[in-house]
Amino acid sequence: MKLRRILAPIALTSALLIAAPAAMAADGAAGPIAADHDVNTSEYTVVASYQNISAAALKTVTTAAQRDAYESLKHERGTLSVHVVPDPEDATRLIVAETFTDKRAFEAHQRGAYERAFRAVAARHGVSAPDYEIKDTSLVATTGGKTAYEKADNGGSVFTVVAEFSNVLPEWRNDFIAIAQADGYGSLTGEPGTLGFFFVPDTSDPTRFVFLETFTNLAAFEAHKNDTPAQAYLALVAKAGIVGPDFFVTGSDSGFTEPGGTSVPNQR
Q1: Which of 5, 22, 62, 257 has the highest count of CB atoms within 10 angstroms of its CB?
Q2: pLDDT at residue 13 in the model
Q3: What CATH number should be reported for the domain holding residue 122?
């Protein structure tokens, strides 16, 4: 995984999670913003890591990311979901996971006033330029000609998981894609706690795939990984010698003990 991790006291993460609601109280909290259009899982998915955030700048940088998320969702029709996720294992690192209608919407967002305001705050505080885990179009969650749709999760307070699988050899690629799409369909339609499921082939490396999944909480993720669709998928992973999951939010490659983190609420 492409992580340039700098370790810091874990206590800073706790401080951030306490500070974020306080910042919202001062500036006005924002709940989930209901999408006014159909949202499916064939979208442009972007996951980025911002690093080297000092303890003094942590609250300011996080609040700027939250505001960027809120304003983008409110004013940019091509922005579908944004999750701002503190790394629970590294308090100097912040993950931003986003979905857009397509690549053009992402590029418009990058040029927009809200993203530029966030980047300016990050730059002033010496935050490293974003390290992208993935920037590409996700595949539809489908099985038997039926398609599943993500649920409203763009308020930001959800459990967010970004998982990487690699060494998907050519002879297993079609099977891997089909069963992953079926996993997404089964999870979105059969698991109330599964909110979003984005499955992204890496166009620069055909043996690599990235998943962005959101859940109501950690318990919902635990239920998901033990449910039938995910177990069928993981059985293929083991059978085909595929490497993973490696988790981007926590930088963990030691199984499911550190899968992701809880996002902080988007705010005005």
Answers
A1: 62
A2: 39
A3: 3.30.70.100
pTM for the complete prediction? 0.84
* pLDDT confidence tier of residue 173, bands split at 50, 70 and 90: very high
Q: How many CA atoms lie within 13 A of 82 on its CB side?
A: 27
Q: Could you tell me how many helices (H) and strands (E) the chain has, helices first?
A: 7, 11
DSSP letter (8 states) at residue 250: T
Assign 197 to helix, strand or coil.
strand
* Mean pLDDT within 44-63: 97
Tell me if residue 260 falls in helix, strand or coil: strand
- Spacing of C-alpha 12 from chain mean position: 21
Nearest to 216 by CA among 194, 196, 197: 194
Q: What are phi and psi of 79, to 5 degrees?
A: -90, 120
Q: Which domain holds residue 92?
A: 11-30+39-262
| pLDDT at res. 76 | 96
Residue 1 lies inside a defined structural domain of this protein: no
Of the candidates 101, 182, 195, the residue with the CA atom closest to the CA atom of residue 141? 182
